[in-house]
Each structure stands twice: as C-alpha cells, then as structure tokens.
Design brief:
Elements lengths: L11 H20 L6 E4 L4 E4 L2 H15 L12 E2 L1 H8 L3 H9 L6 E3 L2 E5 H28 L6
Antiparallel strand pairs: 1-2, 3-5, 4-5
Helix pairs in contact: 1-2, 3-4
Length: 151
C-alpha cells in the first residue's frame, strides 16, 4: 500500500465540503445494515461495494479535513527510514540514531540501513508528549508555589 505522501492543509472550500460530506456520511452510516454496503458514484453511475470499516475511515478523514487539520495515510505495518522517523518525531537524524542505539525505540537493520516500525515511532512520540505535558504542569506548580504565577 502506498503512503499518502503529500500532506496539505485543506483549503476553506475543501473544509466546507468535507464538513457537509461528513455530516451526510455519518447519518447514512448509522442507517446501514450491511458490512459491505454498495455506493454509487454519481458522475459515472458506477456502483461499488466498499467495506463498512473503510467507509467509517473515510468519515474520519472528512472530519479531520473539515477541522482544517492535515492528515496522512500510513499503513500500520510500514517501516520507515531513520530520516523519515526523525522528521515525524521532530529531531535530527543523528539524534534519532542515538535514541535507536540507546534502546529508546526498537529497530531492525537491513544491510547497513536501520528500519523502524511506524507504530514504534508514533508510540515514542506519544510517550515524549506525555512527559513534556507533565514537565509543563510541574513547572507551573513550582511557579505557583514560589508566587511567580498568578492564578
């Protein structure tokens, strides 16, 4: 499966259309009884069966677009390069290599090249965000205790 490589923020017109489409899709999904509903493409009158889970996933994409957020489609089992993993985490490639070598993130080697599961990269990123959030809370509490922060 190919990754949706181009990540763009939805335009205002796309946001509006996505919002309208999302609302309509959610109401239709609630009425479906089949796990493989058939949909029709109005322009071509072509009818296709689509797994209900894929239709629900389309709903999530529309919801994300309607909120003006960017999205990317990445298969879960995908392995990424050290460069791509560094971009996802927001660090330099040499720093990422230190994280890998230090056992912070699991990886495999293909010849000389390291490959990291996308899921492992995202799990590391979530752990770091949680730690960052706690650090901010701790700093705010310390400031309050010292009277540096007005509540």
């Amino acid at each position: 499966m190919e990754t949706y490589k181009k990540i763009n923020k939805a335009s205002k017109d796309e946001q509006k259309l996505a919002m309208e489409s999302y609302d309509a899709l959610v109401s239709v999904i609630e009425q479906l009884k089949s796990e493989n509903p058939e949909i029709e493409i109005e322009e071509t009158q072509e009818r296709i069966k689509i797994p209900l889970s894929a239709l629900k996933f389309l709903g999530e994409i529309l919801k994300t677009m309607s909120q003006g957020k960017s999205f990317s489609l990445v298969p879960v089992a995908t392995e990424v390069t050290t460069q791509k993993a560094a971009e996802i985490i927001g660090c330099s490639r040499p720093h990422l290599v230190k994280l890998l070598e230090g056992g912070e993130i699991e990886y495999t080697k293909v010849g000389k090249h390291r490959r990291i599961k996308f899921e492992d990269v995202m799990n590391y990123k979530k752990r770091m965000k949680k730690i960052q959030k706690q650090n901010i809370i701790d700093i705010m509490k310390a400031d309050e205790e010292l009277g540096l922060y007005d509540s």
